[in-house]
């Protein structure tokens, strides 16, 4: 008796070899019928014996292709059509779109082998790819995911590639970016004037390696944008790049050919090794072991951000010279987004790069390299972008269309639709016109590729944020509007990511976020759930001379902290020429908003300890303080418990902390031990306050978020101290603790409000 059913498979099932897989297993289970892609995923018309169909469906869910993520399989009985074979038929466009686009992943082992096989048709061809590897998100212009809707459209398949593309037994069956030297994209090497130097791949590889050895900076078009490559072992090359990029401090990412090579200069644990080798190929922050690369790569000293090659061309470079260690940093101008359009590359990067390696296929969506670090067996994100985006988060509960604008720093936005949340790639800081434009473009593109028209728009409370203005624009079009306090969003993002039920105590140790009272928050200890929060504690306020925009002058924050304790009779400042002006500003309350940000306390203390005066990148002072503390670790140190007062909750006395630090300095203690004692005091006091609230409110789940927890020393101390009290500590697993999580938190709050009829 023949049975017949229609099977719908949802999830990441396009561009991952799903239809060929179905084709192959259909033969295995004697299934006749059809399979095709549509805008909701993959649809199968299957006819066969009852048991065979059952086993066929079982096989789909048990052994899908490596890159597929099945979210759901639905089946309905339908009348038989009497097919005599099983075939793959063209994609159909439906009304509603709910399918997903796979992220960009690294070249697979099979393609890598062919790349270096002189007998292979694609020997030395830098755009070799197959169903299991290569670019996806970055080249997709629309769905369903078909070659005609990608930037491969302009390259028509040669007979050889077409043969593979159409052969269901072939690894490249329906691989949209499939190409060969005869029909696909090509690399070219240029001078920074645009003049072509070489168009022949062997020549480009050898010349590029030679140019790098000679100390040149090469802009290399990658998967999601241009990277700037240079020899990481030459001080002069590194310093030249720092100068041209106007980037005196922030560490550069590195690329090395193999894990073994990385082990020559970094410690690599098994978990870190698996992160380095994962198909997403993130930058992994590793503890430095030996000084192999220039000391100017990471002036903060402790960690090196390293990744393995992910594009064929990267492998070709390291094949030429396996000993190389390259800087591979995002090609952008100071705080602007990564450059990904060829026309921008030559205008914006020609004063930084000496040469360009580019290719004639467009990048449609830009992505930066992702950044992670390992804490034991856990992975923490600093930046979630290439390799991970736009993989969806499944929530299990349906929702209306919600767009969350995110925050203005380290921006990602997010959309929620049905039972998924999709977080955009990292879009950086939105302070520049270029950043603003890129943000708008990317929101537009996401609306298009996900057929998404938001009903609700969510933003931060901050009245000055660009993202708030964007939300206002959407609201003017009639969307319902929700505003979520910055630190509530931080905590809610973790509640969502870790699926925590009930109330938690959230610790948001952060830079600044706009508070419900209009002041600048940033050390919030709160009892929170998805819906609401109540602020239970924070550090006491101090003036921020010059306001939020002046936070690069951390010396001013140092003076402000000292002035709060000692008035004008400040110790330690005899040499400080600018102090009187700052005193004036503070006393007359000229552009000196009050803040309780712990991020700013780190800045101010770093200044008082003489570790930093002005900073060129966010968290620079805090990183110097952390580095100093790492050199001052003392397991026998007795923690200082910062006194707190109970007003509207616990107010931890920032002035007492400052006084403690000053007294240590006056006792002649060295800066490293003081830096360590400062960390210890904050962790210990946090424990005291949180343990008290936990007992009082009978809450056991503690959530940590906020950029300050990127400080690994503080993070490990706070976690250890809380766990010692029997508390369960949660950190995000799939999103960052920094402001990259804000959009996710905003969605979490909005979904809950919608679910409870509060919007
Ligand atoms: Zn492959
Ligand atoms: Zn071809
Ligand atoms: Fe924040």
Give a description of the structure.
- This protein has 759 residues and is of the alpha/beta class.
- It is 32% helix and 22% strand.
- The chain is built from 21 helices and 29 strands.
- The strands form 5 sheets. It has an 11-stranded mixed sheet, with helices on both faces. The protein has a 7-stranded mixed sheet with strand order 26-27-23-22-21-28-29, sandwiched between helices. A 5-stranded mixed sheet has the order 4-1-3-2-5.
- Strand 6 (187-191) and strand 7 form a beta hairpin.
- Helix 5 (201-213) packs across helix 9 and helix 14 (554-566) packs across helix 16 (598-608).
- The chain is globular.
- 52% of the residues are buried.
- It binds zinc ion (2 copies) and fe (iii) ion (FE).
- Fe (iii) ion binds at residues 486, 490, 510-511, 513, 706-707, 739.
């Amino acid at each position: 008796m023949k049975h017949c059913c229609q099977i719908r498979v949802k999830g990441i099932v396009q561009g991952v070899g799903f239809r060929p897989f179905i084709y192959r297993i259909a033969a295995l289970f004697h299934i006749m019928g059809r399979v095709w892609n549509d805008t909701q995923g993959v649809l199968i018309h299957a006819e066969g014996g009852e048991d065979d169909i059952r086993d066929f469906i079982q096989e789909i869910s048990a052994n899908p292709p490596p890159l597929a993520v099945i979210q759901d399989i639905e089946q309905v009985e339908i009348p038989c059509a009497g097919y005599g074979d099983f075939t793959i038929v063209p994609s159909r466009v439906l009304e509603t779109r709910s399918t997903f686009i796979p992220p960009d992943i690294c070249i697979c082992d099979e393609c890598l082998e062919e790349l270096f096989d002189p007998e292979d048709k694609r020997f030395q061809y830098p755009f070799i790819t197959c169903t299991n590897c290569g670019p996806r998100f970055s080249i997709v212009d629309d769905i369903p995911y078909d070659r005609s809707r990608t930037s491969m459209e302009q390259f028509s398949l040669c007979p050889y590639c077409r043969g593979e593309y159409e052969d269901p037994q072939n690894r490249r069956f329906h691989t949209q970016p499939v190409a060969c030297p005869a029909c696909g994209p090509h690399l070219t090497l240029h001078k920074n004037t645009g003049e072509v130097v070489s168009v022949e791949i062997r020549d480009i590889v050898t010349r590029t390696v030679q140019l790098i050895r000679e100390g040149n900076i090469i802009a290399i078009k990658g998967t999601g944008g241009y990277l700037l490559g240079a020899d990481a072992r030459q001080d002069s090359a590194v310093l030249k790049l720092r100068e041209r990029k106007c980037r005196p401090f922030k560490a550069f990412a590195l690329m090395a050919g193999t894990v073994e090579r990385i082990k020559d200069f970094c410690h690599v644990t098994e978990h870190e090794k698996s992160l380095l080798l994962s198909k997403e190929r993130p930058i992994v922050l590793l503890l430095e072991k030996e000084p192999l690369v220039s000391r100017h790569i990471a002036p903060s000293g402790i960690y090196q951000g390293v990744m393995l090659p992910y594009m064929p061309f990267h492998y070709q470079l390291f094949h030429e010279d396996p000993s190389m260690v390259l800087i591979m940093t995002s090609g952008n101008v100071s705080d602007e987004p990564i450059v990904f359009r060829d026309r921008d590359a030559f205008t914006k990067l020609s004063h930084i790069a000496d040469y360009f390696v580019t290719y004639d296929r467009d990048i449609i969506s830009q992505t930066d390299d992702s950044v992670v670090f390992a804490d034991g067996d856990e992975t923490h994100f600093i930046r979630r972008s290439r390799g991970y985006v736009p993989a969806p988060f499944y929530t299990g509960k349906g929702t209306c269309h919600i767009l969350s604008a995110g925050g203005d720093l380290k921006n990602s936005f997010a959309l929620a639709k049905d039972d998924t949340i999709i977080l955009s790639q990292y879009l950086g800081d939105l302070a520049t016109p270029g950043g603003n434009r890129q943000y708008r473009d990317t929101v537009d593109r996401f609306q298009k590729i996900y057929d998404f028209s938001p009903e609700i728009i969510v933003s931060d409370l901050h009245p000055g944020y660009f993202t708030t203005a964007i939300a206002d624009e959407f609201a003017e079009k009639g969307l319902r509007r929700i505003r979520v306090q910055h630190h509530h969003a931080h905590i809610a993002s973790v509640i969502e990511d870790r699926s925590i039920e009930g109330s938690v105590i959230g610790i948001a140790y952060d830079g600044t976020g706009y508070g419900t009272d209009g002041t600048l928050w940033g050390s919030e200890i709160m009892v929170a759930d998805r819906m609401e929060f109540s602020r239970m504690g924070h550090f006491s306020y101090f003036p921020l001379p010059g306001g939020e925009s002046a936070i690069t002058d951390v010396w001013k924050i140092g003076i402000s902290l000292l002035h709060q304790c000692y008035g004008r009779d400040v110790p330690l400042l005899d040499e400080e020429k600018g102090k009187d002006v700052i005193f004036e500003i503070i006393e007359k309350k000229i552009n000196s908003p009050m803040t309780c940000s712990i991020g700013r306390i780190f800045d101010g203390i770093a200044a008082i300890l003489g570790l930093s005066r002005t900073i060129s990148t966010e968290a620079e002072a805090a990183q110097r303080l952390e580095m100093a503390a790492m050199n001052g670790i003392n397991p026998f140190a007795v923690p200082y418990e910062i006194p707190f007062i109970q007003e509207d909750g616990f107010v931890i006395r920032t002035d007492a902390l400052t006084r403690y630090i000053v007294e240590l300095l006056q006792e002649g203690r060295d800066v490293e031990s003081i830096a360590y004692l400062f960390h210890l005091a904050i962790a210990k006091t946090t424990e005291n306050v949180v343990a008290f609230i936990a007992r009082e409110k009978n809450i056991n789940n503690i959530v940590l978020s906020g950029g300050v927890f990127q400080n690994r020393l503080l993070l490990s101390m706070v976690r250890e101290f809380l766990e010692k009290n029997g508390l369960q500590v949660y950190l995000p697993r799939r999103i960052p603790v920094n402001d990259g999580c804000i959009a996710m938190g905003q969605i979490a709050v909005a979904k809950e409000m919608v679910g409870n009829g509060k919007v």
